[in-house]
Design a protein that fits this description.
The complex is a heterodimer.
Chain A lengths: L1 H56 L1 H6 L3 E2 L6 E2 L2 H32 L2 H16 L2 H20 L7 H25 L3 H9 L4 H12 L1 H17 L2 H6 L16 H9 L4 H34 L1
Antiparallel strand pairs in A: 1-2
Helix pairs in contact in A: 1-12, 3-6, 3-9, 4-6, 5-6, 6-9, 7-8, 9-12, 11-12
Chain B lengths: L1 H14 L11 H32 L5 H5 L1 E3 L4 E4 H32 L4 H15 L2 H15 L6 H25 L3 H9 L4 H12 L1 H17 L2 H4 L23 H10 L3 H30 L1
Antiparallel strand pairs in B: 1-2
Helix pairs in contact in B: 2-13, 4-7, 4-10, 5-7, 6-7, 7-10, 8-9, 10-13, 12-13
Classes of the chains: A mainly alpha, B mainly alpha.
């Protein structure tokens, strides 16, 4: 009697449990593929909204045109100056930021007492937490006048100022990725190098940095991605005039091109801004592919 | 004398076991050491200088009135209360959307999915999401949430955009926390007859509480500092909420967006005051995140 009574409840409980399991399974699966869906949606939307204007203006005209006059009577949409500025700005930032970042990582990893190490790392990571508008604000109030005074320019808002701001902004990425990969180098390498008679500095620079190469390059490429996509910091310090990249001249980046005109653009002009977004997206996509390539190669080594 | 020197040398080596050839002077070593120290010092000086400069310039203008009123053109006073409220709205709604999705995604990757092509694709796309610049999120959010879904410039559009943006942070940090839970816990639970969901609910999630909270704090850090993605989606209005429920469907600027507005108009005094508030928030968030992830390890 009791068995007959409990048995059905047991099975129904089990069935209910099975149903819950199955539902949770589906829910977690959906959460899991959410990032795929997001990337797919972003890609599709960027392409859909970016293509019409490119088709209208003409891809070649759009990419290699040097005149950006969207509101002129006979509008011209050439974004070559912005593309070149973005490339120049990014490489400038890497040229300054990468050595500084890697050397800072060496400093924090090997030359600083163990107790202070964590504090230094935390301090550098703080740089990553500071919002980009604040970099822009400090850039325009402090750096820009300084640049103008040092180089005797009418205005400090220039590619040079943007490069410095970008270099500081990508520092934390490069430093923290470099520190992680330097720490992952086996102690034996370093010890072996010392045992062979190399000095500490030689061991660090000739052994450890080479062993951590793929990690350090990853950091630099990540920094590049950040520099390409940075908007709000450099919109204030770049001067915002569409010119071919000129170190001490006013320039406009791809990113700042979108923000500075989105508020009033309409029609084809507005569509071209989305096309600029698409070009930017392709840049980032390329960086991502490079990154996966490096990581794959690194894991094979 | 020689004995004394040798002993001292031995002591020095014992104290600091370095290469035996260190005694010979190499100019290149000195150069490398100097530039490394210089680079490190410069970076640390940048951090300290930047933060102190902002706080020193901005804090004198941060008054109680500044924090608790709205801007008044009539009285010529500035106040960021609307921005504080908007920021809180944005943080809460974004996390309500992103946290379950992110934590769920991490659990799926770590507990459900078999290692294979799907997990590789998920991990690749998560990395890709982390690498997409905020301006692209802004454009995407504007097209999808403002236009296609018809939300217009609203806090809600901004939140949904930011939810996608902070997703990778939450997934990655939670995944790391899940990996630190010993396999024995899962096996033990399975041995006791617990189902998967039961194990997740009663063992895994409580075990990674620290990691999950850290991920949320890090996300708050990103949300608070975000501007490019919000300008296009949440807009730039700075009004006190007239209706607490429908406020999310109206346009609203967070701190960072408001800061950009003022900086763009050249009103540096009030910009720096907001910057100081933001820097203090960032410091607090970093400290809290460190505290939480530290407790997880202990």
């Amino acid at each position: 009697m009791t068995i007959a009574e409990t048995k059905p409840t047991l099975t129904s409980a089990k069935r209910a449990k099975g149903a819950v399991e199955r539902i949770m399974n589906v829910i977690f699966f959906v959460c899991g593929i959410a990032s795929i869906l997001c990337v797919a949606a972003i890609t599709i939307y960027m392409v859909i909204s970016g293509l019409p204007a490119i088709r209208e203006v003409g891809l070649w005209e759009f990419l290699t045109g040097t005149v950006w006059a969207p509101t002129a009577e006979n509008p011209q949409f050439g974004i070559l100056p912005m593309i070149l500025t973005t490339i120049a700005g990014t490489f400038g930032a890497i040229i300054i930021g990468a050595p500084l970042g890697v050397l800072t990582a060496v400093f924090i990893c090997y030359l600083v007492p163990k107790r202070v190490q964590n504090f230094c790392t935390a301090a550098v990571e703080l740089l990553a937490g500071i919002p980009s508008v604040i970099y822009g604000l400090v850039g325009i109030t402090l750096l820009s006048p300084l640049v103008a005074r040092i180089f005797d320019l009418p205005s400090g808002a220039s590619l040079f100022t943007s490069v410095i701001v970008l270099a500081v902004m990508i520092l934390p990425t490069i430093v923290s990725v470099s520190i992680t990969s330097l720490k992952a180098v086996p102690q034996e390498y370093y010890d072996g190098s010392l045992a062979l008679g190399a000095t500490t500095m030689t061991s660090i620079f000739k052994m450890n940095i080479r062993a951590a190469k793929s990690g350090i390059i990853t950091g630099i490429v990540l920094g590049m991605g950040r520099a390409i996509g940075e908007t709000m910091a450099i919109i204030m310090v770049s001067g915002n005039v569409v010119n071919m990249p000129n170190l001490f001249g006013s320039v406009r980046f791809l990113t700042t091109g979108i923000v500075s005109e989105m508020s009033y653009a309409a029609g084809l002009h507005r569509q071209t801004l989305f096309s600029i977004g698409l070009i930017l997206f392709l840049f980032i996509f390329a960086i991502n592919l490079i990154l996966t390539g490096i990581l794959k190669k690194g894991s094979k080594d | 004398m020689t004995v004394n020197t040798a002993a001292r040398q031995a002591q020095a080596i014992a104290r600091n076991p370095r290469s035996l050839t260190e005694t010979r002077f190499r100019p290149m070593d000195l150069v490398l050491r100097c530039i490394s120290v210089f680079a490190g010092a410069l970076t640390l000086f940048l951090v300290a200088g930047l933060i102190l400069y902002i706080l020193a310039t901005g804090l004198p203008n941060v008054t109680w009135e500044f924090l608790t009123t709205e801007e008044s053109a009539l009285n010529r006073t500035y106040g960021i209360l609307p921005n504080i409220i908007n920021t809180v709205y944005v943080i809460v709604i974004t996390l309500v959307v992103a946290a379950p999705l992110g934590v769920g995604g991490a659990i799926y990757l770590n507990e459900y999915a078999k290692r294979g092509r799907l997990t590789r694709i998920i991990e690749f796309t998560t990395e890709a999401l982390a690498g997409i610049p905020s301006i692209i999120y802004g454009l995407f959010g504007m097209m999808v949430f403002n236009n296609t879904f018809g939300f217009g410039y609203s806090i809600l559009s901004g939140c949904l955009t930011l939810a996608i943006m902070v997703l990778p942070t939450i997934i990655r940090t939670t995944q790391e926390a899940l990996r630190t839970v010993p396999t024995g816990y899962r096996e033990g639970a399975a041995g006791l007859g617990a189902s998967k969901w039961h194990t997740i609910r009663t063992i895994l999630i409580p075990c990674c509480k620290g990691g999950i909270i850290t991920s949320l704090i890090l996300s708050i850090g990103r949300i608070v500092g975000e501007s490019a993605a919000l300008i296009f989606t949440a807009g730039i209005a700075a009004n006190l909420p007239t209706n607490w429920f429908t406020h999310a469907t109206t346009s609203g600027a967070t701190f960072a967006v408001q800061l950009y507005q003022y900086a763009d108009q050249g009103r540096n005094e009030v910009s720096f005051a907001i910057a100081a508030v933001l820097v203090l928030l960032v410091l607090a968030i970093n400290f809290l995140a460190r505290l939480c992830s530290g407790r997880k390890k202990a």
